[in-house]
Structure formats: C-alpha cells, structure tokens
Fold this sequence. Notes:
This protein is 46% helix and 12% strand. By secondary structure, it is of the alpha/beta class. The protein has two domains: 2-124; 140-279, no CATH class. The strands form two sheets. Strands 2-1-4-7-6 form a five-stranded mixed beta sheet, sandwiched between helices. Helix 2 (20-35) packs across helix 5 (84-97) and helix 5 (84-97) packs antiparallel against helix 6 (102-118). It is elongated and about 80 Å long. The model has no long low-confidence stretch (mean pLDDT 89).
Amino acid sequence: xxxxxxxxxxxxxxxxSSSMMTMLVIAAVVYLWVTxxxxxxxxxxxxxxxxxxxxxxxxxxAYIAMHFFLDSGVxxxxxxxxxxxxxxxxxxxxxxxxxxxxxxxIVVGILLSLLxxxxxxxxxxxxxxxxxxxxxxxxxxxxxxxxxxxxxxRDVKAVVPAEMLQFIRQYDxxxxxxxxxxxxxxxxxxxxxxxxxxxxxxxxxxITDYGKQQGVEYxxxxxxxxxxxxxxxxxxxxxxxxxVDNYDIYIFDxxxxxxxxxxxxxxxxDPGREDYYTRTE
Length: 281
C-alpha cells in the first residue's frame, strides 16, 4: 500500500500540486463552503469536489483504479472531473459581487484577473500550437493524403505514419486505420505493423505482410524513408500510386478500386522518382 500512496503523491505532484490554479481551487472551495447558501451550488462545487479529491487520494480506490480500469499513466484524469474553472470563476464573481463600493469591485476584479493570468501561461507560446493551415485546422499533408485515398461510396483501410494518426479520421471517417493513437502511448497498446512502419530502415516484407494480415489497402510512407529487403514493396502486391506533400502512397493490387486509382494517378508519376530501396539477402 505504501507504493500506491507514493504513486498517488507523484502523480499529484506532476499534475501541478504547487500550481497557482490548484491553490486557487482550494481557496475557492473553502470560501464557498463557508459562504455559499444554495444547496445545488454546494453539491456541485463543494461536496463533489471534496468527494473526488478524497477518492483520488484514497489508496484502496487508487489501487483498484490503476489495476482494473485505469493505469498510473492516466490516473490523474480523475482530477479532470473537478470543474476547476467554474469553481474559481464562480467564487471570484461571488466575492467581487459582495463588495458594495463599485470602485473597489473594479479594483478587486482586476487584481483577481491578473492573479488568474499569472497562474497560467499563454497558449499561443506553446510550440505545439501552430497557425491553422486550412478551415479544418488540420495539417495540409493529412488532407492531401486523405483525398488521394478516398473512394466514393465505400470505406478503405490504411496504415499511415505516426504523425497522421490523430488527424486523418477527423477529416475523412471513411478511412479506417490499422491502429489508432493508442500505440503512441506506452502501455496502452501495441501493433506489429506500427513497429514495422516506424522502424529505420523499414523492411519491405514486414510492412506488406503485416498490412495484408490486417486488411490494409493503402500504405503511406514518408518520402525518403529507407526501405530494405530481398524485394521492393511493389513485388509484394503494393504498387506505388503517387506522392503528395512528401508522403509516398502505395495501393494494394488486389483492392477492388486499385485499377481505377492507378489509372487516375498514372500520369502524375514522376519518372525520375527515387525508391530509396536497398536490396538485402
């Protein structure tokens, strides 16, 4: 049980035990516990928050949660159930509203706003936030690749590089994937095809064989991906179709729509294209 307690404390520390927002939530809950008279508000912002906090730190519950329906990597998400923003905003508005002098209300309101800003960070300063390239707010390459793979009136199945996993089905739900974003998180899932796709170099037999086993009709590789094997991909029934936005797209020769797609993109194939294939014994 001591190990479970240590895990809980570590998770809470990494979640932000000393952050400004955490301290504001605690202060807001205490303030509402003392001053709030509405039963519904107390139930939502005080009792629910206290109950979730107790559950989070309660070792038997944590042990069951992390071994049966969650794991230590996502146990912190229980704290997501606490409506922190609503609690702090409501408590701040209530506190300011109880100040009778208008000028003081304005000053206190500004000070509380600055305090909230100080406790956070500018989202646009995050390196993961980039300017939208299109109305879909998705990488342009994802849209280009999805448009090539789309077949009107039916679903298709594809395997794509890791950076596309979280986006492609947001744009086109008719494109099914051999694996989802779960393979990106350690301990969530594994797939031999994912391991083959992300290997360096990629083995032609591995990605095509695993692809056939999982019913894949398209293989998408980053342009320039080194490929090794006794035979190139094209000799394992996956023909090169086209390249868009630095991604090479291969199509399964026995797919029902393969002939139509090949005819559509045949004229776009660059005769000087390099395959980056190296023969091995």
